[in-house]
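Problem statement: downstream parser choked on a complex file, so we are re-checking the raw output for the zinc ion run. The parser issue turned out to be on our end (a line-ending mismatch), but while we're here, posting the original submission so the record is complete.
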Amino acid sequence: MSYLANIANGLLTISIIFTGASCLQAQDTTSFPEIPRIDVHTHVADDLHAISNYHKVREILKQNHGVEMAMWINLGDRNKPINSYNEVIKAGLGRILCCISDYSAHDGLKYAPNELPTWLERGYVGYKIWAGPPHRRLKPGQEGYPYIDDPAHEPTFAKMEKIGMVCASIHIADPHGPWGNRTEWLPDSVEYWKEITAWRHVLEKHPDLVVVSAHGMWSLCQDGQIDYLRNMLATFPRLNIDLAATFQYFPFVTRENLRSFMIEYADRILFGTDVGRWTDPTETSQYARRYFRCFQILETDRVTKGGFFGQNEIKGLALPKDVLEKIYYKNAMRIYPGVRQSLQQLGYSIE
Ligand SMILES: [Zn+2]
């Protein structure tokens, strides 16, 4: 038996490592305890009980894994918009920033362009739009639907571009990949590319719109998609992506291709999970574990079973420290208003 001491943020934690049959393995502790992490894609909404669960996840990550989970960007939820902003901010203890949200863009966007500046002034840090494949949302008898480049959406994107409102974790397609006929996802490749192309049209019209495209723009599921994503990022300098709910698909692409992509575009990739809400307190430690699996995949070259979702075996990417810093917090600090200030108020020493 040996002892390993980690000193992070003034807290001394002692992890006991047993050789042989063990209760805690050495790999259960991050090698980067000093890097704060921000999850930019969460759906805690204004559920105060769920917010307290997030704080518990943070405590577990710190105690068990030496991980500094610093903040969350709250995108609301399809069924639960953030109505109690002040309560959420208070319960978040400086660690939660909120976005306004619209989860049915196909019915017309919820917020009028001229009211967007007011939401920014109130402290919301972005506008989350869900405009994924509406074949799952069509009402019986309804045919056809507007794509994200529909002219009706134009005034909103123009206003956001003008006032610098972040297009936060916008969802514009569902994953299309080589995993058979999982009908809940997007099996039709033509439909998939129509949606991606419609999104391209929006970015062409609004080159100054600051965007975080959710789920890697759902373009991390095949090597060819990653090539297209490289092209999009090279073409549109204000386009960024989050990694929410993408980890379980990493085995479907070539590890070296994904790794070189992450390094090449480290300035444009943000950590995210798509974590939601839960009420059962026994689930809290599982959520901490799911977070840590994602961190292991990015930080080590070990095989991890499952990302935030799924149970696929994934060989880690062992990304360099400077890349991890950008993905974990520096890009979020650059893109969203209030992140830098919040990190400083929380006592993190950041550049
Ligand atoms: Zn989401």
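For whoever reads this later: DSSP finds ten helices and 13 strands in the chain.
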